[in-house]
Amino acid sequence: MAKTRILRAYSGVRPLVASDDDPSGRNVSRGIVLLDHAERDGLDGFITITGGKLMTYRLMAEWATDAVCRKLGNTRPCTTADLALPGSQEPAEVTLRKVISLPAPLRGSAVYRHGDRTPAWLSEGRLHRSLVCECEAVTAGEVQYAVENLNVNSLLDLRRRTRVGMGTCQGELCACRAAGLLQTF
Q1: Residue 47, strand partner residues
Q2: Where in this chain does the record put each BFD-like [2Fe-2S]-binding domain (predicted)?
């Protein structure tokens, strides 16, 4: 660590669940907890899903949806676990062969971020292939796609969706370009 440059550090809140009979908090649950407030507190119509980690969000959504559906009398099984995430319908290798118009470093970064949705924002136009963020290999076409299809309204949204400003320059070289494109698109 002493010989490396730290670029950023992140922290976040994790919804751990303490037991009602453990005021010390030493036995905090790190698992997923589904609370039916009708059974627990006498409050009909309230369900809480908590605990878990970012990687378990689909399972948590399935549990919560199943609980709500049971209350509504819907017995159809949830299909969340069977559905592919957007952009992951085909293997990355197949998508990489479809986007040969991009230089190799851009191609790999784009497919990593957007999967099989990458061809949707490719264009032969020079503007679309121009780099906005050199550190993270983000093009103007990707910025336009994010604004028009991924609910991007600010530089912070754009950073989450494309990694603009997350490279070694931390936005120093690309923030103005990205902001200008946000206004254009």
Answers
A1: 36
A2: 131-182
- Average pLDDT for consecutive 10-residue bins of the chain (185 residues)? 74 76 74 91 92 86 93 90 88 88 84 89 76 93 93 95 92 94 92
pLDDT at position 17 is 80
Within the chain, which residue ranges are assigned CATH 1.10.10? 92-184
Asked if 118 and 137 touch (Cβ cutoff 8 Å), the reply is no
What span, in angstroms and rounded, lies between the C-alpha atoms of 135 and 161? 15
- 112: tokens are 């990593």
| CATH 1.20.120 for the 92-184 domain, yes or no | no
Residue where the block lists tokens 């963020």: 133
Q: CA angle at residue 177 from 110 to 148, to 5 degrees?
A: 55
